[in-house]
Design goal:
Layout (H helix, E strand, L loop, with lengths): L1 H17 L6 H14 L12 H10 L2 H4 L6 H7 L12 E2 L2 E2 L7 H10 L4 H4 L2 H24 L3 H24 L15 H13 L2 H7 L11 H13 L1 H11 L6 H26 L3 E2 L4 E2 H13 L1
Antiparallel strand pairs: 1-2, 3-4
């Protein structure tokens, strides 16, 4: 009986790994994060390149969905709103224009509460992406600092931590490319799981997504406007999703739309990773803060002596 229960539980978990009914489902997230990782800019560190790194990032991208459940109510209540943004048709969330979001999560919460809106109802997706990007930038800054100081054991540890942080962060970038995760019309007629899982499973291949991918671009130092623009474009596609759904409950004609959105998510993830690496050179670490650039410059001078 115990063996049966273990096998049954394992089967359930494997099924979950194959398609949680959230965001893009496991396969969609693996496509976004795995394809992005396979096409990272050549300028990012070597430990992020290669098949093993891409596979690790793709797997970790699925886990923010897998950890949600009724047995962890506090964790689920705190983190679930990070996966979506209830953007209204007028381009606002809780009365705040998407183009004018406050710079930090606490300020966003305060503004919504002042307007009588529950921030946990309308979602935190822009800040999940922004905070993940800033965390990744700091990971890179510490990696640069330890490397400059010749701290090999800490460099190796930072590589592992960076892969973990990047994989989890990539999930929320992926969520941001799913049109029904960035709209108040998130599940009209039960379309949500059918689009993000059924369409991706049946009508999208890896090659479809890779064809739509573009090279990484360096974003401005303040990335919040770029995140807002990314989410605005995603929201604009929700009408196309429903147009296809109402024509016939999603057929093959929904595949190109899903592939294009998945590719847009992978491309934006590449932008953010590339930008985080470049901007990390201008970051600081430690307390009191020490500029990373000065540590790297000092190490370079020492090598020349």
């Amino acid at each position: 009986m115990l063996r049966f229960r273990v096998l049954y539980a394992s089967a359930i978990f494997v099924a979950l790994c194959g398609g949680v009914a959230t965001a893009w489902g496991a396969r969609g997230h693996e496509l976004i994060s795995g394809i992005a990782a396979a096409h990272f800019s050549a300028q990012v560190p070597a430990f992020l390149h290669g098949a093993q790194a891409a596979q690790t990032i793709a797997i970790l991208a699925t886990e923010p969905d897998l950890i949600k459940g009724h047995d962890d109510e506090a964790l689920t209540a705190q983190t679930s709103p990070d996966h979506y943004l209830d953007l209204a048709d007028d381009g606002s969330v809780g009365g705040i224009a998407l183009a004018a979001l406050p710079p930090t999560r606490p300020e966003y919460v305060a503004a919504l509460e002042h307007a009588g809106v529950d921030p946990y109802r309308v979602g935190f997706l822009p800040y999940a992406i922004l905070e993940g990007y800033e965390r990744l930038t700091k990971d890179f800054a510490l990696y640069r600092a330890y490397r400059a100081l010749g701290r090999g054991e800490r460099v190796a540890l930072r590589e592992r931590i960076t892969l973990q942080d990047l994989g989890e962060f990539s999930h929320f970038v992926g969520d941001g490319s799913q049109p029904l995760h960035v709209s108040v019309h998130y599940n009209d007629g039960g379309a949500h799981p059918k689009f993000e899982e059924g369409v991706v499973e049946r009508y999208v291949t890896r090659q479809d997504v890779e064809r739509e991918l573009r090279p990484a671009r360096l974003l401005p130092a303040d990335v919040l406007p770029a995140i807002e623009a990314y989410l605005r474009t995603t929201n604009a596609a929700y009408r196309q999703v429903y147009a296809r759904y109402h024509r016939g409950r999603f057929g093959a004609d929904a595949g190109p739309l899903a592939a294009a959105e998945l590719a847009r998510g992978a491309s934006f993830l590449d932008d953010l990773v590339y930008t985080a690496w470049v901007r990390s050179e201008d970051d600081s670490v430690g307390y009191p803060a020490v500029p990373v650039r000065s540590l790297e410059s000092h190490a370079a001078r020492a090598l020349r002596l």
